Amino acid sequence: MLKAIIFDLGDTLIPNTYIEKFFVNGEIKNEVHNALIPTIETISELKKKYRLGIITNVDKTVTTDHIHNVLQETNLFRFFNVITLSSVVNYDKPDKEIFELTLKKLNVKVDETIMVGDRIPFDILGGNLIGMKTVFIKPNGNPFQNQDEITNEKEKPTYKIQSLNELIEITNKITSSE
User: Fold this and answer.
1) 40, 53, 84, 104: which sits with the fewest CB atoms below 10 Å from its CB?
2) How many structural domains compose the chain?
3) How much is the mean pLDDT over the chain?
4) Alpha carbon distance 77, 30 (integer Å)
5) Contact (CB, 8 A) for 2 and 167
6) Least confident of 22-31, 115-124, 150-159
7) Cut 0.90: pTM above it
8) For residue 34, what is the domain's CATH number?
9) Are 47 and 92 in contact, with CB atoms under 8 Å apart?
């Protein structure tokens, strides 16, 4: 039974360019808020049924407060039960330990969780290596073209989507087949 969804942060939930501008300017502009409305609507809908978490690879200078501030400024913080930063736990995706820590905090098992991300060698590979269903989101204009190529079977996502709102249909499909 599907109980939780874990997301990557940058370019999965919030475009990295917005996050970088926030760190420089300390605020999110109105056009950013407007651009995130579909994300907020989708996450709000998913939160009604599932525990939600974030796993993000960030460098050592990025603190929990930094990420919490970005999520609060974008009105996303309230939806997430767990936020795991690589800089805090000293593991990076695709290391299984960062996934296991997040699953433990969410109080769910691997087979009750899906991983959603935009980078094959980190998000999808990591989720696959511990046995999660994975969802690869490839929005148009993904700047990481070299990180969305599947080079072996372990990197193959369970599902592929182009926008986050497609995730609702996927979760419905998963729950109806259980």
Assistant:
1) 104
2) 1
3) 90
4) 17
5) no
6) 22-31
7) yes
8) 3.40.50.1000
9) no
Give the residue from 126, 97, 108, 145 showing the smallest Cα distance to 8.
126
51-56 β-sheet, strand order: 82-85, 51-56, 4-7, 113-117, 133-137, 159-161
To which residue do tokens 């490839």 refer?
138
State the CB neighbour count (10 A cutoff) for residue 141.
Answer: 8
Q: Both tokens of residue 177?
A: 């087949």
| Dist CA 119 CA 126 (whole Å) | 10
Angle 121-17-106 from CA coordinates, rounded to 5°: 55
pLDDT for 65-108, tens place per residue? 989 999 998 899 999 999 999 999 999 999 999 999 999 999 99
Q: Give the closest residue to 11 by CA, choosing from 118, 126, 153, 171.
A: 118
Query: Domain limits at 69?
Result: 4-113+120-176
With beta carbons less than 8 A apart as the criterion, state whether 36 and 74 touch: yes
Contact between 106 and 81 (Cβ < 8 Å): yes
Which residues, 6+ apart, have CB-to-CB distance to 107 below 8 Å?
51
